[in-house]
Amino acid sequence: MPKKSNYSRDQDHLLSRDNKFTFPRCCKWLSLTVFVLTLSACGGGDSSDAVTTISDDTDLDGLTDQQEENLGTNPTVADTDNDRIWDGDEVSMFNTNPTLSDTDSDGIDDGADPQPTVFNTIPTDPNSGRFVEYGVFKTNTTSSSTQRITNTRHEENHVVYAPLSTSNQPLLIYQTYIEDTNSDTLFNEGDLSGSVIAIMNVDGTRPRYLTDIDPSNGMIQNNHSIDATPEPSPDGQYIIFVSDRDNPGSFQLKLYVMDIHGNNQTPLNYASNPPASNEIDADPFWGVDNKITFKRQQFISGRAGFSRVFTANIDTATMTIYNLVERTSGSNTPLNTPNGPGDFDPKISPDGHLIASYRHLSDSVSIFGDYDLWIGAYHHVDAPADSSITLFDQDTSTAVLFPRWNISGDKLAAWQLDETALSMGMDAIDLIVYELDLSEQPFSFSATRTNITPNNDGWFETMPSWNTDPNRAEELIYSASRQF
User: Which pTM value belongs to this model?
Assistant: First the structure.
């Protein structure tokens, strides 16, 4: 049972015994000021618009210089305690002490801590007993320049660059976890009911949450629901994602949309053919010309059926899905490895002409099963038949997952689990880049494959995504974990 921190700064009363942020007696007038600032961010989770104009904010951290003087923070440094969270966000969102890097004194800095106001043990793998750490990294297609930008004890994955047109960009959009729902001490993909959608700066600083925010005060409040797989619209105005917030814990996933900074979170409407009560819609992607794609999966007697890819358009005036087309289909052959049979995480090419996805074919690869990549036209006369897609790089000893197009549409990045390497006790999870030679009339392609993280360094690299800046087109962002 986690032990609540009883930290108190008696000299200035920044934190009370229950870790609620309070103000020094000499400046109680600030409570109203911060309350007003908080309200301006309450529509979503992002406090980027909460920077006050009542007086100077030299470091642009969301607190005025006068507030910083009263709080004991540095008005010229956005992150006084160097814990990754900016001072204004510590006050208005995280409820942490902006002058203390480890508010709950559990040995994990606030910006690395999934619950920075709750005393937790350092996450430990339940099988090996070793500590676990997570990181977000930048690299390029040759791994000649790799930089770690975050060091956390909770997983931050599904990381994507916001489009260049996004207001207040550059930003990274991602998914993280604030509750250990399966009680294994880890905060990762196994804790989907504790998932949160968030944004951070491209250097890994200033994390702030878009979901799981109390609308009355702007503070983090776990909604005990899945809020996951965020994908921005190409114009940088919206994020499409999935949630089961209508029935928390049910895994009855539906498609949702919100403004890029977290406001106006709402389920998408369907002009026709909404999911049935035993179906989920998930893995959404928003492409050019308001084209979208996602998977729809039926559950029969608790067993996952074939995951089918759908395409559609989205009307942003009414947030309605229309022109819904079943793009792939297949047999509900039972599989014992996770997720069931079918196609997952479809991605539309930058020109809107193609889709890349991956298909769960068999149980031949332990842990995940055998997944192979495929490419097909966005529209195809043979859809949803297998003849409308082309599987490639097929290998029954590897699972290849999460393909991502680069901005020019001539490369895919993905990650793989190598069963052979796993059986030899080697680094079995790596990033793969495919250089594509594509022809659309008639459709054909070849793919040259490169493992860009071959070093046996103990890191498990997953979910690569390309930079959206044309000047950094060869740069990738990815998530990784290791035991130590």
Answer: 0.88
